[in-house]
Structure formats: structure tokens, C-alpha cells
Amino acid sequence: xxxxxxxxLILWVGLVLASTALAKPPEKEDNLPLEVLPDITNEIxxxxxxxxxxxxxxxLSDVAYSKEKNLEVTLKGKNGYVKFLEKRGxxxxxxxxxxxxxxxxxxxxxxxxxxxxxxxxSSRTVLLAQGLGQRMEKNLIALAPKSEDERILDLLxxxxxxxxxxxxxxSQGGTEVSLYxxxxxxxxxxxxxxxxGYKVLEYVLESERDGFExxxxxxxxxxxxxxxxxxxLEPLHLDKGEKARLLIVERLNQDRGLPLVVGKTGGxxxxxxxxxxxxxxxxxx
Length: 285
Hints:
It holds the Pfam family TraK_C. The chain is mainly beta. It is 9% helix and 40% strand. The chain folds into two domains: 132 residues, no CATH class; 91 residues, Immunoglobulin-like. The strands form six sheets. The chain has a six-stranded mixed sheet. Strands 2-12-4-7-6 form a five-stranded mixed sheet, with no helix packed on it. It has a four-stranded mixed sheet with strand order 3-11-10-5, with no helix packed on it. A hairpin with a 5-residue loop joins β8 and β9. The radius of gyration is 26 Å and the shape is elongated. 29% of the residues are buried.
């Protein structure tokens, strides 16, 4: 398929050796979940006081570690629990572990090697994430049975509804595109679907005046996407301060093709040329 499809978005609104006392407060540490990848050594901190939680997408079947490290490790289905056991000093005070140790998890047949450092921090959640090869395979399996039109519609719908599958990579934007007077355009994010040959770019448009009429062909330009396959824009009319969402599906590593516009603004048709920039930095009629 060569072309650009317009989809009315409104249809889819649906872890020095030392001992520390228990009274010592935890170190300040970002307590967001940690994501680790297979096939590399991941260095992470874990709590040496509380139980740490490991999560596998499917089945967490085995773990290898040195029994000399005085660890308590439990596996249950998709979950694993790791706790560093404390010792007692000569005077009976608790002594917490601080030396690094190695953990190797088997998550659904994929090995994850972790070099962990026990610290005085809160319990950590560790996500055993899919590697690039796994994500590509999963994406290909999901998209392969569909036609190209169906794949493109599926990409647009998932991004618009913010239902991004685990295997898709999201990078933040922040880039501004200044082409049309009175219209602020900013790239919000890019969604890469590994192995599919596609990515989706999401822009936010904001009008500086009343009565700004939009149409898809204004954004069929290399400044927005090198090879757009589909454009979804909603709404088409903006007054001052109002915003619109622009989604563009871009095919990677392919020459630019003719845009196919589908929607209210012109039925289903393939235009013979991209817009020439008549409205660039000029007041739109």
C-alpha cells in the first residue's frame, strides 16, 4: 500500500562493609519499578531489610545464586521474592548485608543476569522485561495475519486510546514544528513497533486564533514524517486556545509514496501531490 489514510479519531473514544542499626532511616532512592533486560549484566540496588519483588511476564521457573550469601528466595508463578537475611553482631545488634551478589533468573526460558547491591532502601519491584528480539517476534506475530490497512488502523487505534502494548517502545518528543502562522505544533511522542517497519508520531496542535481550519494534506510533509502511510486528525476546526491531536503512521526505510486520504474531507482518494506549502508562515485563508 502506498498512501495516507485519514481516520476520524472520534470513533475510538472508547541494590564498605558496614553494620547499621534498624533505627537508621532508609536512604533516599527512587522507588519506581526497575526494568532489567536479558543477555546483559544488570546492576541494580535492592533493599537489605525488606522483601524485593521480581515480576516475569509469563513463568518465573528458576533462579541461581550463591547459598553463602544468606538469601531467602521464593518463586511462585510469575513472581519471585528476594530477601537478604540479617545477622547478629557480638552485642546482639542486627547486621545487614551490603556486599554485592549475583542472581540469575529464568523467565520463560530467557536468562536475566543481575548484579545486586543490598542497601538501606525500601523494597524494590523489578520487572524482567522483554529484549529486542522477543519484542520483535511478539510484534510480528500480532501483526502478521492482518492486511496492511488493518495493521495501520490497529496502530492508530492503540496509540489514540493510549493502550500501548508492552513490546512497543515510547520516546518523548518536545520538538516544535513551525510551519503555519497561528498554529503551534509540538511532537508529543514517538511509538516504535519493533520488527514491524512502522512507527507512530503523535503531535499536539494549538491554534492562536479563531476559525483555524485543518486538513490532512497540510501535514503530509517531510517536516512531520519522512514517509507517512496514514494521517489521523481530530478535530478539523480550532478556535483560539483549542487543541487537536495529529497521529501519523510512518513506514521506515521506504521511499515516500502518494498520500491516500480517507474521511470527511474528501472521501477515499489518492492525491497526486503533497501540499506545496502555500500556507507556510502565511495566514491561512
